[in-house]
Specification:
Four copies of one chain form a homotetramer.
Chain A (H helix, E strand, L loop, with lengths): L13 H18 L6 H8 L3 H7 L3 H20 L17 H17 L1 H16 L1 H28 L9 H4 L1 H13 L6 H15 L4
The structure holds a DNA duplex (31 and 31 nucleotides).
DNA sequence: CGATAAACGAGACGGTACGTCCCGTCTTTGC
DNA sequence: GCAAAGACGGGACGTACCGTCTCGTTTATCG
């Protein structure tokens, strides 16, 4: 038994989708997540409410897709083109410490950028409470990035830059955990210097045993 | 310059306050934060809505106080009595690694306990979006704990268990960052084994340089 | 210059309108006007509150329309059909006294009928305080009736049954004034005998001068 | 078994009573009856709410007493002194028509005076809906006046100015009914000319037959 | 003349209803 | 023939007052 009312996605209006993404991101940025309403998005996008309810199950889902689209667009603009993901791998110059510094500094910059901060924060918060949405957030946004860390750490292990037998899924959290902590909880400022220090402490912790 | 309409807190009904705390925590635990309403709390507590609005500015503020009260009660029950905070200091047996394991395992247990998880998660999420509430969350709930880590790390530095010149406010994030990350984002299970591994990696990273 | 947010009345739900009329009249009859609430009407009508606020500015306005509808329905049932107002003219048998007795007795019966009394009284009272509503009450409910009196009195003047030069807009108040006085203020019982006496005194007062 | 909590009226604060009267009349005049609240009266009078609830059962009762007090004060100022009611009798110059013109013109003036209009209208309206209050309104405010009309009409009957056997309780309504009608329902302006015409028509109606 | 009890101001309390904002569904209409 | 427009039943918001109930503080007899 299939879905009773599965909409025909081939007939979907691209123009409406774009307008909805733009409106959602703008409203979240301007007025905050909780004051952003589906009616508000529809109105700003010049779209009927039903057009939103037809394609997304919730406000959070709209924002999730809008943010993924934003990220994809940014990546396309930065990288070689659509679908090319090789560019995002963490560089491997042989110097683990400086490679990670580069990546963590970039992450800090992103977290400090208002364009990314507002929607990402809203999604993260919503995911903290709504486990299903949280799973999507992790899978679609976080996991791809974490995999890059794991890959780089495995390469480092092979090159003897970190101790053998190390669990890369845990090790990477020494880097992303502290940054995420400061970002979400705003305990202290998120700076390049902070990122560098985290890298220093963590890489030492993962170093081969003498 | 005082508030124009500050209610007289000496006339405040203790019975109502307790009932509101209980109702708020119960509802958040049972139905989740977003489905918890001020009307629902008032109704369950057998209290007029105005009694809530008179003393708290928002649903989040109610839950914050309720949770602080819960934590205070738990502390009082566990410790030697009210106001006695010495009990919460991280032990200093001379073995930093095992001292931290103990604390991080306890933290993992707390994060896995439904009684703490639901309200704490709700507050953390709300604080992620609302900076003012986030500041309160950090100041009243997180900061006291972080200070304990900083103290223990300073003692460790003095004892030569970690490298000299280390910044304790950053170093402690090697421990709490990863745990918080897994707790809030639910990337992978939060276990004692995980806590132990984090301690291992991080303590190595902070070890005196050879 | 049109209203900024005028709802589209062509999309209006006839079913809801009817249900609201019925609920409003029933509640006013059962519990009285001041204990009748918009929430109560909405609930009894199985309707959202907003559906009431969308189409009426106040409780009194709802009741006014409900009562007008009731009167229109009653008229339609009694008379030859919708829009036929000729039936309501005061009869002209040549005997002014008996013609007016007939009408005033019918008015007394109406004022004593619970179905009409409760809402009419509520509207009259509200109109006494709220001038705008009062104007509507007069224009839509009272004025049509007063015109019939004025017409009959003009015919009587032409037939020499009352003195020439008499002001019909004042003369009619000799009849409706006393009845309304007793109805609204409940000074003494409203009976057919009372109506007859009023007609006697008043017709004598308007009689041609000897 | 006596009343459980009858307050001791000998200890009653005269100052509070006066302040409450003033506040009630002022608020009804300024903002209208329905927007006048007991809290508002208490606040404006510098009085606790309980002081009002202790002595009056309802907002309408407060206003009733306040208005009676106002009328008593006005009477005292106008007449020879407190308790002297003889002054209010309708004059008997032997000319019924001109005696009544005098009184009805004075009544018209009162109805057109804002100071009397607002509270009297509010009380009348409330009395239209609340039968108990209406009875008080009639008994304390209206009835004394109506008795004066009845007395004058009886004197007129004795003097052969009106037909014998006339019912004064009905006859007086030919005068007060029309005036009250125009006052409460605002159908047409209330003027001296109107009062004169009513007197003319009505006195003719009551004239001796023959 | 000082004790004492009631009335007083103040206002917190459990409630009800207000009028508004959105929710998610359903219906109509205009392009 | 789709999608914008938006009316609908519903739920919660935050506010205003209701009438009741303490709180200290006058106040004003009586013991």
């Amino acid at each position: 038994m299939t879905e009773a009312k599965a909409p025909d996605s081939s007939r979907r209006s691209e123009r409406s989708r774009r307008a909805i993404y733009d409106a959602a991101l703008a409203l979240v940025g301007e007025t905050g997540y909780s004051r952003t309403t589906i009616e508000g998005i529809a109105s700003r996008a010049g779209v009927g409410k039903q057009t939103i309810y037809r394609w997304w199950p919730s406000k959070a889902a709209v924002l999730m897709e809008a943010f993924l689209d934003l990220a994809a667009q940014a990546a396309e603009a930065a990288g070689g083109g659509p679908g090319d993901t090789s560019e995002y791998a963490i560089p491997d110059t042989g110097d683990l410490r400086s490679d990670l510094r580069l990546v963590l500094r970039a992450t800090v910059d992103e977290m400090n950028s208002p364009v990314y901060d507002a929607p990402a924060r809203a999604l993260a918060a919503e995911g903290v409470i709504d486990a299903e949405l949280g799973a999507q957030f992790v899978e679609k946004l976080l996991e791809p990035q974490l995999r890059l860390y794991a890959d780089r750490l495995r390469a480092a292990e092979a090159a003897g830059q970190v101790r053998a037998g190390l669990d890369p899924r845990i090790a990477l959290e020494l880097f992303v955990g502290p940054l995420t902590h400061r970002w979400l909880l705003r305990t202290l400022p998120l700076t390049h210097a902070y990122a560098d220090t985290i890298v220093d402490y963590a890489v030492d912790g993962l170093a081969p045993r003498g």
